[in-house]
Amino acid sequence: MPDWLNTFVLLALGGGAGANARYWLGAAVKEAYGALSFPWHTFAINVSGSIVLGFVAGLCLNQPDDARKHWYLLLGTGFCGGFTTFSTFSLEALELLQANRVGAATAYVLGSVAAGLIGVWLALKLVGR
């Protein structure tokens, strides 16, 4: 199988599984706790996705075994990417902090949250909501 096709399949399988996991976990939390005054379902998904990505990154990245790169595509980029992009955001912010780039990490965290909020607000305004 060509390398690009292998990559495509790993991402598709992992992303599909992650998206399904996000939907079903969110639905289960909403079902268990009913209408919430805080979006605990999304909070649980984002935090658990970050934990999973931490394990996957620790086991798969910067390793000499090339097979681990495939596992990272499936579980890190694919599953965690389909489950939540917050996990990647958290990993990247931590990597900036570990590189002693506190200013860049702060700008990344605050800028991402602010830009995301502004983007959602603007999109809602443009569609009349």
What's the short story on this structure?
With 129 residues, this protein is mainly α. The chain is 83% helix and 0% strand. It is built from 5 helices and no strands.
Explain the overall architecture.
- The protein has a domain at 3-84.
- The chain contains five helices and no strands.
- The N and C termini lie far apart (47 Å).
- The chain is mainly α and 129 residues long.
Average pLDDT, all residues: 91
Query: What percentage of the residues does DSSP assign to strands (E)?
Result: under 5%
Helix content: over 70%
Which outline best applies?
A: globular
The overall strand count is 0
> How far from one another are the termini?
47 Å
Main beta-sheet annotation: none
Poorly predicted spans = none
Specify Rg, calculated over alpha carbons. 17 Å
Order of helices and strands: HHHHH
Question: Helix count?
Answer: 5
The chain-level structural class is mainly alpha
Q: Any descriptors?
A:
129 residues; mainly alpha; 83% helix
